[in-house]
Amino acid sequence: MTDRKCRWGILSTATIARKNWQAIRNTGNATLIAVASRDVERSQRFIDECQSQACYDPAPQAVGSYEELLGRDDIDAVYLPLPTGVRAEWVMRAAAAGKHIMCEKPCGVNAGQVSELLSVCAENDVQFMDGVMFMHSARLAKLREVLDDGKSIGDIKRITMQFSFRAPDEFFRQNIRASSSLEPYGCLGDLGWYTIRFAQWAMRYEMPVSVTGRLLDSVESFDGGEPVPTEFSGELLFAGGASCGFYCSFMTENQQLASVSGTQGHLIVSDYVLPWSGGELTFDIFHPEFRLDGCDFTMNPGRQTIAVAEHSQSHASAQETNLFRTFSDLVLSGTRDLAWGRISLQTQQIADACRRSAREGSEPVAPDVAS
Question: Is the peptide bond prior to 58 cis by the omega test (within 30 degrees of 0)?
Fold first, then answer.
């Protein structure tokens, strides 16, 4: 057994990086070496605030530029939560510097750009993975068991997902997700990425043959440019007859629901992205039974709740920790798992098709898989 750890750097002091500061600390096979922003004082302030809650010994170092962090030889991998509009440049620079890359989503402004990023990563023999945490939850493995057992759900016929939060007014005036230059996909990139990914996973990464997208609401970008999606719905159709509908929004209250319906039953996960707080994650399987007895019409739910021992956050078993632990294992082993990049590219291709359909009057389109 080795005590060697994957050495991380963080490019940006984005809010989500606070959660992953702690995730890296909890892995057991990784440590955080440095945090960079374009201002060393901002980096140091971020470190001081995070260090007060989740302490490293020694404390990570503050770096005043992304270039300086990428030039360090004591960093193996970088976590990159920079805005989508500038993300590609720094993914390419990180790959050229030989750093393995954990990238926030969406991974690029279109599938062509993501394909280019993956090529650069392959040329430099570095691992690429996006930061979708639920993909690394132990609950997902249990869900797969249920979907594959042939009796709990049967053949998948319908998948539905919702992911939303009600943004305050100031969000649309100053948050990067209301900027067409920084986050051009708006809610579709920020929230829809998760809904699309769950459908991909449930369908074992089968690409849909037809995609329909509908822009339900948008906001004028606070820095100019075209309007940014704030409420969006999509429909995916698969060759075998299964279908998927999703809804994502900055306009409706917190919801993160996934449902899979089949020929023998259905399952519901009410917190598939950010688990409800606690020490176990659950989902429900339903085999409803309808009975007619004279004037009595009775519907019994036939509910079975499945629980998995996994903490919701801030713990060694939490999904965000599993994400960084899995990535660090790949780095330390010297192996590369190219499937993670292919999954990201598929997600981007489907999101692109949804947006294209919305721009073309919500006519069905086929995803472009040539990228």
Answer: yes
In a shared domain, residues 229 and 165: yes
What percent of the chain shows pLDDT beyond 70? 99
What is the chain's percent helix, strand, coil content, to nearest 5? 35, 25, 40
CB atoms within 10 A of CB 38: 11
190 touches 230 (CB < 8 A): no
Amino acid identity for residue 339 in this structure: A
DSSP letters, 289-331, are EEEEETTEEEEE--EEEEEEE--SSSSTTSHHHHHHHHHHHHH
Are 119 and 164 within one domain? no
Q: Could you tell me if 173 and 219 are in contact, meaning their C-beta atoms sit under 8 angstroms apart?
A: no
What is d(CA 12, CA 35) in angstroms, rounded to the nearest whole number? 7
The pTM (predicted TM-score) of the whole model is 0.96
Q: Is residue 91 over pLDDT 60?
A: yes
251 and 188 in one domain? yes
Amino acid at 68: E
**Which residue segment(s) compose the domain that 147 sits in?**
138-317+347-359
Q: What pLDDT is recorded for position 1? A: 45
User: Per-residue DSSP letters for 115-158?
Assistant: HHHHHHHHHTT--EEE--GGGG-HHHHHHHHHHHSSSSS-SEEE
Q: How far apart are CA 186 and CA 357, in angstroms?
A: 16
Closest residue by Cα to residue 130 from 323, 272, 263, 311:
323
For strand 296-300 and strand 303-309, is the pairing parallel, antiparallel, or unpaired?
Answer: unpaired
The count of C-alpha atoms lying within 13 angstroms of the C-alpha of 209, restricted to the half-sphere facing its C-beta, is: 7
- Quickly count: other Cβ atoms within 10 Å of residue 308's Cβ: 17
Looking at the structure, tell me whether residues 212 and 298 fall in a common domain.
yes
User: Which CATH number goes with the domain that contains 28?
Assistant: 3.40.50.720
CB atoms within 10 A of CB 168: 9
pLDDT digits (tens, 9 = 90+) for 226-266: 899 999 999 999 999 999 999 999 999 999 999 999 999 99
Between CA 53 and CA 257 the distance in angstroms is 31
Helix (H, G, I), strand (E, B) or coil at 71: coil
49 and 86 in a single domain? The answer is yes
